[in-house]
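Aim 2 progress update. The chain analyzed this quarter is reproduced below.
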Amino acid sequence: MEKMDWSQFKLRVNVNTDIQNAYAKWATPNGLESWFLRNAVFRDKDGNLRDKHDLIQPGDTYEWYWHGYPDSVVEKGTVLEANNRNLFSFTFSLECPVSVSFYEESGETIIELIEKDLPNTQEATFKHYVGDSKGWIFYLTNLKSIMEGGLDLRNRKLDLTNVITS
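Predicted structure tokens:
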């Protein structure tokens, strides 16, 4: 039996759209807010606020706020790569890098997310490997739902807690 690698995970979702449209859902604040976040705040290297429709650039910093959570729950990080075509990466929880790739397979666009360099302790495994992957599975499903049919599955109520939709 092969030993499980808890330091990273890879998730893929097929979406019936073109690569450029899928990329824009990740690489603009407005795109991220359409399926993932309540508020996506990006600043360029000089600290200037990016417009909601601007393409995010390497070196930008972010603050992310989710539906179903108060403003005290915020994720901060840095954009590592954004090639305006098929690769977007950023730091996430514990500064772990997340890369998102976009490519075609069997006539559909594949969005592939890899989160790596996760700490290899029992506590970190449950919090980050299990917790982060569970969250990403929901949000990738929501992205597919929105892009293919328009239904947004996110919980938007602060008083409704402990649900898989936020």
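The chain has a mean pLDDT of 93. Residues 25 and 31 are 4 Å apart (CA to CA). These observations will guide the mutagenesis experiments scheduled for the next reporting period.
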